Amino acid sequence: MLLRNLSYVLLVVLLVACATNPVTGRKQLMLVSEKQSISASREAYVKMLAPLEEDGKVDSDPELTERINLITSKLIAQALIYRPETENWDWRVKIIDDPETINAFCMAGGKMAIYTGMVQKLDATDDELAQVMGHEIAHALSAHTAERMSIALATSLAVTGFALTRDQPEVVLAGASLAAALAIQLPNSRASESEADVIGIELAARAGYNPNAAVTLWKKMASATGNEGSFDFLSSHPAPSKRMETLRKLIPKMMPYYEAKGERPVYPLKTD
Ligand SMILES: [Zn+2]
């Protein structure tokens, strides 16, 4: 009986928890609100960076830091056009000194990082780095962290069978904080990945970065050996050949944005 009640609760929660992607309109499972995912991500970001900062592994190369900050600032300026309310996000980007790791992420609320391995191992150009960061920003704009946290929560709910009610926000948040830390390491769904690819290449083109770089980036990514560990871009972003084809087809549509005349706006990114 208890079990039946719990599954009923779960079913109701799942039914009411569907949301629409704010950028593409795709239906998403949303047990966790975007607001919750942002506050959980803020916590996870600080926790993740603190020990690295202590070891002097964050923003240690001023030239690279300046380069990544400029690329990211131009992309954020374009992101605000898709979702103007994200101007109030506390956007950040940190460069993590780890030449073996080919990875980058953008958590809910615009908390980003890129590993030096992404730059060094791929010998990445500005245009290619803009594709990486554009793709990651697209995940954040599309609330993919909240979606993955929701999936993680739904799974843990199904396993432990505890009831998720509105009277127990602390239960939800405790799970959410853990899920936020895990979310950036879990692969996105194929639908989320396509969304991020399509939005990412457009963000980059509008910010003045060559869309052809989306293809060369994935080509380099595919031939790079990368890290053997699980926390690696390719482990969470499979099948580069297929997405290269899709991206290649998008290039003609992107060229007018890239070739548009005029200076591109730069978002005043906080760097402290
Ligand atoms: Zn992705």
Structure characterization notes:
By secondary structure, the chain is mostly helical. The chain has one domain (about 30-260). It is about 60% helix and about 5% strand. It contains 11 helices and 5 strands, in the order H-E-E-H-H-E-E-E-H-H-H-H-H-H-H-H. It has helices spanning about 1-15, 35-55, 60-80, 115-120, 125-140, 145-160, 170-185, 190-205, 210-225, 235, 240-260, and strands at about 20, 25-30, 90-95, 105, 110-115. Strands 3-5-4 form a 3-stranded mixed sheet, sandwiched between helices. Strands 1-2 form a two-stranded antiparallel sheet. Helix 2 packs across helix 7 (about 170-185), helix 8 runs parallel beside helix 11 (about 240-260) and helix 9 packs antiparallel against helix 11 (about 240-260). The relative contact order is 0.16. Residues about 1-15, about 160-165, about 170-175 and about 225-230 have low confidence and may be disordered. The protein binds zinc ion (ZN). Zinc ion binds next to helix 5 and helix 8. The site of zinc ion has 6 residues, from helix 5 and helix 8.
Provide the fold topology.
Blueprint: H1 2-16, E1 18-20, E2 27-29, H2 34-54, H3 62-82, E3 92-96, E4 104-106, E5 111-115, H4 116-120, H5 126-141, H6 144-160, H7 169-183, H8 190-206, H9 212-223, H10 233-236, H11 240-259
Parallel strand pairs: 3-5
Antiparallel strand pairs: 1-2, 4-5
The site of zinc ion (ZN) has 6 residues, from helix 5 and helix 8.
Brief descriptors of the model:
two-stranded antiparallel sheet; binds zinc ion; 272 residues; mainly alpha; single chain; disordered N terminus; globular; three-stranded mixed β-sheet
